[in-house]
Amino acid sequence: MTKEQCLTKIKSMMPDIEEYIMKESERLLNSGGIDPGNYCQEFIFSAIILAVVLNNLKNRYKPLSDKCRKDIKNLSHF
Q: d(Cα 78, Cα 76) in Å, to the nearest integer?
């Protein structure tokens, strides 16, 4: 696969990713897991929600093979 092909594939996944981010954010906000009233700066609370959403998102696209896991671990260091 070329770099351009890879970027095209990633771009094609963006609508699904954006939809997941919004739905998962709403789910977390409705969960009552933390009180948004404890945060006076709105971006801190939003950053917390987004951090959890992105952590959950990684499991949706995580390949199962050992080689893929090794490559993910390797790229995580860059």
A: 6
- The two tokens of residue 49 are 């929600």
Rounded Cα distance, 53 and 64, in Å: 20
- Over range 48-69, report the average pLDDT: 88
The first and second tokens of residue 34, run together, are 């933390």
Per-residue pLDDT of 20-57, as tens digits, reads 999 999 999 999 999 988 888 878 999 999 999 999 99
Predicted local distance difference test score (pLDDT) of residue 29: 93
CA angle 62, 25, 78 (to 5 degrees): 40
Task: Give how far the C-alpha of residue 48 lies from the chain's centroid of Cα atoms, to the nearest Å.
Answer: 12
Q: How far apart are the first and last CA of the chain?
A: 21
Spatial distance between the Cα atoms of 56 and 72, rounded to a whole number of angstroms: 16
